[in-house]
Amino acid sequence: MESVDVVVIGAGAAGMMCAIEAGKRGRSVLVLDHAAAPGEKIRISGGGRCNFTNIHASPKNFISQNPHFCISALARYTQRDFIALVERYGIAFHEKTLGQLFCDGSARQIIDMLLAEMKRHAVQLRLATSANSIEPTEDGFVLAVGGGRVRCKSLVMASGGKSIPKMGATGFGYEVAAQFGLRVVETRPALVPLTFEARTLERLKPLSGVAVDAQIACGRTSFSEAMLFTHRGVSGPAVLQISSYWREGEEIRIAMLPQTDLFAALRTARVENGRQALQTALAVHLPKKLAQTIADELGLTGQLADMSDKVLRRVEDAVNGWRIKPAGSEGYRTAEVTLGGIDTRELDSKTMEARSVPGLYFIGEVVDVTGWLGGYNFQWAWSSGWCAGQVA
Ligand code: FAD
């Protein structure tokens, strides 16, 4: 029977990072993936340029039932460590916005870098291969792999979440957790487009293509990022971010001019230019199409001079206190990540090893640690993968 020190299931960001680190320690490492190519999510990430980390990554950018769990891993292998690796490989990159680092060229460069590191440290990669069953033994595990069997001392589950099943996502990590009696926090799609009722879509249709820098809130969480009106309602980074916090039946609150005291601005306009139409005054601050739609929706087609403070307050409320109830989300089909996963109470936060199953590790997205949009999810994959790689 084939025998190695470490089997890593999943040649994604977390699995490859873990394999490199274990390989550096002289461990014999076999990485299995049922996909035909490694790092498929890296390849399509960041619009093909891979937002590989965030300069400002810190534990507050992650969602988990235990917000403290990620602190140790993020401190042990930081964004600066990953940036140093990228620089060592001479990969050019830039900050796009809000600390998000992207390759200047292609996401393929990140995959090639990881593959080169794996090769350098003698990691074996076996693609188009899945593990069918896992049997615990006295000193490790025996896996049924393809037609044969593989023995290993350490088994690292880096099989990712449920998002984008078309790209090979499976619930395998959760099944393995169940097999070993480990708790799993209920999963749900996150960083996912929200959907809206036909009536809302009809109202928003004329705005398709309009973009604003909005502040979107749900409960006590808010994000200030770009929002785009589309034929599917509202979309863009701000909406994806809030989707990770939104629950069925809840409203989201949108401020389309969060930095502006619109009431004061409209009062000034009324004094200085009372014959102006509302949409013209609004168009000073907002895209013209949006200004027109708001005036039409409110039925305010007259001059500013005829509008009372009460009316101007209504306008401000429509712009900065817009409430909208999503009907649902597009689900795992288009979600960038999966919220929930292996309950962090089951894992050692320094090593990612299951507390009750020595030699079994869970890293990356399969764990109940989910980042915001902006390079945080890859940073979690690098950090958690690196930690497991030091001990597996
Ligand atoms: P994955 O990358 O999902 O890797 C898991 C691997 O396991 C896969 O290769 C899969 O084929 C394999 N696998 C699954 N089941 C089995 C099985 N039974 N047997 C064998 N192999 C199996 N995050 C960012 O930080 N920045 C971005 O720019 C970004 N853009 C994204 C864009 C899109 C469209 C999507 C979908 C996600 C994006 N993400 C981004 C999120 C990021 O891709 C993931 O969080 C990250 O890839 C998780 O890494 P992972 O190694 O845990 O899992």
From TrEMBL:
Keyword hit for Repeat: no
Cofactor(s) needed: FAD
Gene3D superfamilies per record: FAD/NAD(P)-binding domain, HI0933 insert domain-like, Translation factors
Alphabetized SUPFAM superfamilies for the sequence: FAD/NAD(P)-binding domain, HI0933 insert domain-like
Keywords (A to Z) from UniProt: FAD, Flavoprotein
Start and end residues of each RsdA/BaiN/AoA(So)-like insert domain: 188-337
Keyword match Flavoprotein: yes
Ranges for domain RsdA/BaiN/AoA(So)-like Rossmann fold-like: 5-390
Listed NCBIfam families: aminoacetone oxidase family FAD-binding enzyme (TIGR00275)
Name the UniProt record assigns to this protein: NAD(P)/FAD-dependent oxidoreductase
